[in-house]
Design brief:
The structure holds 2 protein chains of 2 kinds. By secondary structure, chain A is mostly helical. Chain A folds into 3 domains: 11-118, Arc Repressor Mutant, subunit A; 123-259, no CATH class; 323-401. Chain A has helices at residues 9-27, 40-56, 63-69, 75-87, 108-122, 125-140, 146-173, 176-181, 189-206, 211-242, 250-259, 262-268, 283-297, 323-336, 344-351, 354-369; strands at 30-32, 35-36, 91-93, 103-105, 341-343, 375-385, 393-401. In chain A, strand 1 and strand 2 form a beta hairpin. Chain B has 2 domains: 4-48, no CATH class; 71-169, Arc Repressor Mutant, subunit A (Orthogonal Bundle). Classes of the chains: A mainly alpha, B alpha+beta. The A-B interface holds A 273-290, 292-294, 296-299 and B 11-12, 15-18, 55-56, 58-59, 65-68, 71-76, 78-79, 82, 111-115, 130, 134-136, 151, 155, 159-160, 162-163, 165-166, 169-170.
C-alpha cells in the first residue's frame, strides 16, 4: 500500500482499517508470516479454532482452552496456528494489555473460510452465479445510480475476460487432460452468460449513457462463449477419438445417462454406423479352403514306427513272472500242514531264524497278492508271544488254498 | 428418385442388416444394384462398391475382417453350394438354380474326404446356416433346398473367373434324373 504525501489522517485511518480486514481475512490461508499454507488440513485446524471461539461465548478463550476444545488435533499444531492467526489479527486479546490470557476472534476470517470451502468444492462457479445475482439486485435497486451500473458492468467484464482468457489459452495449448481438469469452467456457462446478459440489459435500459461499457461486456461475453465452444469442441474431439471418459467427471456422465431422453441417448451414436457381422469370402479363400480340405482328406498317416520287427527288450527289462516258483513254495508250505491250510506261526517256526523267516513271510505275501495263484493269507486277531522262540512273537494267521 | 436422406438410410440398412429385399416396384437409392429374383417377385438391393472400397481391401491392408466360426468349413460349404447351384458357370452367378441340400452335402463330403458322417453333417449344417445368416446363400431348411444368396453378386468379374477355375476343379454333383 503506497501512501501518497497528500493523504489525510482520516484516509490513513481508513486504509489501516481496510488493511487490518485484509490481514484478518487472509489469516486462514497463512502458513506463517508472509507465506501461504500448503496443506489443506491446516484449514481444518483454523476452522476448529474459530469454531471453538464461536462456542466459547463472550468471555473468549485462552490458548489452553482453545487447545482443549480442539482436542483430537495435535496441541502443538493448535499452538502454532493460534500464533499465526494472532499475528494476522484474526485472533486478538480481549483487552490489550500485557499478560492478558483471554482472546477473541474476528468474524471476517470465518466468513472467508466458508467462502474458501465453497470455492474449493465448486470451483467458484456457484459464487459467480451468486455474484451475478447480487449485481442484478444492485443494478435493479431503485436508488442505484449510473456509477453503480458502471462498476457492475466493468466488474462483470473483467470476470468474463478472465474466464474467457483462461479457457482460450487452455483450449489452444494444453493437453486434453489439462483441459478436462479445468472443465468446470465449461459447465453452466449458458446460465452464467444469460445472467450476465440480464444484468447488461437492465443497465443498458436504465442508463443508456453506459453504452460503451456495455459493449465491452458484450464482447467479453462473446469471447467467453467462443472459448467455451472451442474448448468443448476439443474435449469432444478428444473424447471421440480416445474414448477418454475421464475427461468428464463420473457424476456428469451418470447424471446425463439418468436424465437424458431416449433421443439424447440415441444422439450419442448418431454418427456411427455399425457393420453387420457378415463375413466376406474372397474366391482365393474359397480355393484355399477347398484345396486344404482335399489335402486333409488323404488317409491319416500312422505315427512313425521303426522298420521291421522290433528286437526283444533286454532280459533285465522284462517283467519277471515267478508264478511257478511261488506255486512250488506254496505247495511245499501247505504240505507241511494238512495240505490245504497251514498256520503262519508254524511255518515261521519251521524255518528257524528270523532271517529265513522273513524271506518266507515275503514269499507268502507275494503269493497272496499274485493274481494267478489261488492261495490266500488271512490274519486274525491275537498273537503268540514266546521269548524262547524266534521270532519271539507272531500274529495268528493262516495260509490256505482258495480253490 | 429418392432424396439424399433416403439413400443414406438405405446404405445404413445394408450395412446393419445385409442385402435388402424389397418389392420390385419400390424406389431404390443411387449406387445400389438391383438383383431381381428369378420369378420377379422381389428385388434384392446390393451396393455397387468401387474397387477400392470392397471388403477384400482388408486383405490387402493386412487387416482382419469379420470373424466367422470354422472359416474353412464354411468356405468349403460355400464352394459346394457354388458348384451345385451355379449350373451355367459361363454366365453370371446370380440368379443361380436351386439345389437340394443333400447334393451340397455330397459335394462337401467329396472335398473334405473321409470324415465321420455325423461330424460332416453337423459341420455342413452349421456352415449353411452361417452362410444363410450372412446372405451368401438362401437356405430353405424345411424343403432342404439351397440357393445362392444375393451377396454372391458382389464378386467382381475377375473374382468370378477365379471361381470358375474352382468350379471346374471341384467334383460334379450327382444330378437327379
Amino acid at each position: 500500500m503506497t501512501a501518497g504525501p497528500e493523504l489525510t489522517l482520516d484516509q490513513l485511518a481508513g486504509d489501516a482499517a481496510v488493511e487490518r480486514l485484509y490481514r484478518q481475512v487472509f489469516a486462514v490461508l497463512a502458513r506463517e508470516s508472509g507465506a501461504m499454507i500448503s496443506d489443506v488440513e491446516l484449514l481444518d485446524v483454523d476452522e476448529a479454532i474459530l469454531d471453538a471461539f464461536a462456542d466459547a461465548g463472550r468471555d473468549g478463550l485462552t490458548v489452553d482452552q482453545a487447545v482443549a476444545a480442539c482436542r483430537p488435533i495435535d496441541p502443538g499444531l493448535i499452538h502454532r496456528r493460534f500464533e499465526v492467526l494472532r499475528d494476522y489479527g484474526a485472533i486478538s486479546k480481549v483487552v490489550e494489555r500485557p499478560h492478558e490470557r483471554f482472546h477473541r476472534a474476528a468474524f471476517a476470517p470465518y466468513v472467508m473460510l466458508l467462502f474458501l470451502r465453497r470455492l474449493a468444492e465448486q470451483g467458484g462457479q456457484a459464487e459467480l452465479h451468486q455474484l451475478l445475482t447480487l449485481e442484478h439486485v444492485s443494478v435493479t435497486a431503485p436508488d442505484a445510480g449510473p456509477e453503480t451500473g458502471q462498476t457492475t458492468i466493468s466488474r462483470l467484464t473483467r470476470i468474463f475476460r478472465h474466464l474467457g482468457n483462461e479457457l482460450a489459452i487452455l483450449a489452444a495449448g494444453s493437453t486434453a487432460e489439462q483441459l478436462g481438469d479445468h472443465a468446470q469452467l465449461l459447465w453452466g456457462n449458458k446460465g452464467l452468460i444469460s445472467q450476465a446478459e440480464e444484468v447488461h440489459t437492465v443497465v443498458l435500459t436504465r442508463w443508456p449513457q453506459l453504452d460503451r461499457e456495455c459493449t465491452a461486456l458484450r464482447i467479453a461475453l462473446a469471447a467467453y462463449g467462443d472459448a467455451v465452444e472451442k474448448a468443448a469442441g476439443r474435449l469432444i474431439e478428444q473424447a471421440g477419438t480416445t474414448r477418454a471418459l475421464g475427461l468428464l467427471s463420473v457424476e456428469t456422465w451418470l447424471s446425463f445417462a439418468r436424465t437424458a431422453s431416449e433421443d439424447d441417448l440415441a444422439g450419442v451414436l448418431d454418427t456411427f454406423v455399425f457393420d453387420a457381422p457378415a463375413p466376406w469370402f474372397s474366391p482365393n479363400l474359397l480355393t484355399e479352403a477347398v484345396e486344404s480340405g482335399r489335402s486333409a482328406a488323404t488317409v491319416r498317416q500312422p505315427p512313425p514306427r521303426p522298420e521291421g520287427s522290433a528286437p526283444p527288450p533286454p532280459d533285465d527289462l522284462r517283467p519277471a513272472d515267478d508264478a511257478t516258483g511261488l506255486r512250488e513254495t506254496a505247495e511245499r508250505l501247505l504240505n507241511s500242514g494238512d495240505g490245504d491250510t497251514v498256520a503262519v506261526a508254524a511255518v515261521l517256526d519251521g524255518v528257524g531264524d528270523w532271517l529265513a523267516a522273513r524271506r518266507v513271510l515275503a514269499d507268502l505275501t507275494a503269493i497272496h497278492h499274485h493274481p494267478d495263484l489261488e492261495y490266500e493269507l488271512t490274519w486274525s486277531d491275537g498273537f503268540r508271544v514266546d521269548p524262547e522262540r524266534s521270532p519271539a512273537w507272531a500274529s495268528e494267521g493262516t495260509f490256505r488254498r482258495t480253490a | 428418385m429418392t432424396t439424399d436422406d433416403d439413400t443414406t438410410l438405405w446404405w445404413a440398412r445394408y450395412r446393419a442388416a445385409g442385402p435388402q429385399r424389397v418389392a420390385p416396384a419400390s424406389a431404390y437409392p443411387a449406387g445400389m444394384t438391383r438383383l431381381v429374383e428369378p420369378d420377379a417377385s422381389a428385388v434384392w438391393l446390393l451396393p455397387a462398391l468401387p474397387d477400392n472400397a470392397r471388403p477384400d481391401v482388408l486383405d490387402e491392408l493386412g487387416l482382419a475382417g469379420v470373424a466367422v466360426d470354422q472359416p474353412n468349413d464354411t468356405a468349403r460349404v460355400l464352394a459346394a453350394c457354388l458348384r451345385c447351384c451355379w449350373t451355367e458357370p459361363s454366365g453370371p452367378v446370380w440368379p443361380a438354380a436351386p439345389a437340394p441340400y443333400d447334393q451340397v452335402v455330397a459335394v462337401f463330403r467329396a472335398v473334405t474326404g473321409n470324415r465321420d458322417e455325423r461330424a460332416l453333417h453337423a459341420a455342413a449344417m452349421g456352415a449353411a446356416r452361417r452362410l444363410a445368416g450372412a446372405g451368401w446363400v438362401l437356405f430353405d431348411e424345411d424343403a432342404r433346398v439351397v440357393r445362392l444368396g444375393p451377396r454372391v453378386a458382389s464378386w467382381s468379374a475377375a473374382e468370378l473367373s477365379t471361381l470358375r477355375e474352382l468350379w471346374r476343379s471341384m467334383p460334379a454333383p450327382e444330378r437327379e434324373a
